[in-house]
Design brief:
67% of the residues lie in helices and 4% in strands. By secondary structure, it is mainly alpha-helical. It has a two-stranded antiparallel sheet with strand order 1-2. It is globular, with a radius of gyration of 19 Å.
Length: 242
């Protein structure tokens, strides 16, 4: 996840100094302002997920249930499968791939890229900070950075962006994204890398991070626009115009 975050930081730096609509072009604030309004309902589910994760570790009885679940999975004697290491990136990759295939999204690349970068930077800052201070041991006893799940955060953040960009016109795409993200979370438990509480919190952080990015992006975009710079973005390139 750190390597992934590094790539996003580079993209974020480029967009911070340069992304904006050219005069006369479609304005994000004018065209999609409804997509960036704060709705309390959008924070209910992820808040419940994060709270459940915290309580899951704080409560002795709930954590014992988590341990029992882990022991049950281990008793199956099934081999570990590292597919979750790659699968976590599929939802966010799908956001760009679908647009490249001609599927209409709410935003253009020049907005999707910084929105995704902001989402992952916000979430990664939270996840890595909490991992350090929470000091929760992983089920496989390999380290003390189990809470919350970074893989699950990555997957659910991408799934939420996928939902926001394509969900209204293609609901099955949104369902598919969340199905994949859920699968990643379950694989983290199956591979004894995380407790259920870690996965629930990671999912909540992912959704909340995307919501925070969509809320704050228009304000940041409006400020950058005044600098008179423009970013032209495609799935494989960024072009800066001053």
């Amino acid at each position: 996840m750190k390597r992934f975050l590094g790539c996003l930081l580079i993209v974020s730096f480029l967009t911070t100094i340069s992304w904006a609509q050219a005069p006369g072009s479609d304005s994000l604030l004018d065209s999609h302002i409804q997509e960036h309004r704060v709705r309390a309902s959008a924070f209910v589910a992820p808040t419940i997920l994060v709270t459940s994760g915290i309580v899951g570790h704080a409560s002795r009885h709930l954590h014992q249930a988590d341990i029992d679940l882990h022991n049950t999975v281990v008793s199956w004697g099934m081999p570990k499968n590292p597919i979750d290491n790659a699968l976590q990136y599929l939802p966010i990759a799908s956001v760009l791939a679908l647009r490249a295939c001609g599927v209409s999204s709410v935003h253009q690349y020049r907005d999707i890229i910084p929105l995704a970068a902001e989402t992952y930077i916000i979430g990664a800052a939270v996840v890595l900070s909490v991992k350090h201070f929470a000091d929760v041991q992983r089920p496989d006893q390999s380290a003390y950075n189990s809470f919350p799940s970074g893989h699950t955060f990555t997957a659910f953040a991408g799934a939420e962006i996928l939902r926001r960009e394509y969900g209204k016109t293609h609901p099955l795409i949104a369902i598919g994204g969340y199905t994949i993200a859920t699968g990643v979370g379950l694989m983290r438990i199956y591979n004894s890398r995380h407790w259920m509480a870690d996965v629930l919190a990671g999912a909540g952080v992912g959704i909340l991070s995307a919501s925070a990015a969509y809320w704050t992006y228009p304000k940041i975009n409006s400020w950058i626009t005044r600098k008179g710079c423009r970013l032209s973005a495609t799935p494989v390139s960024l072009t800066l115009n001053f």
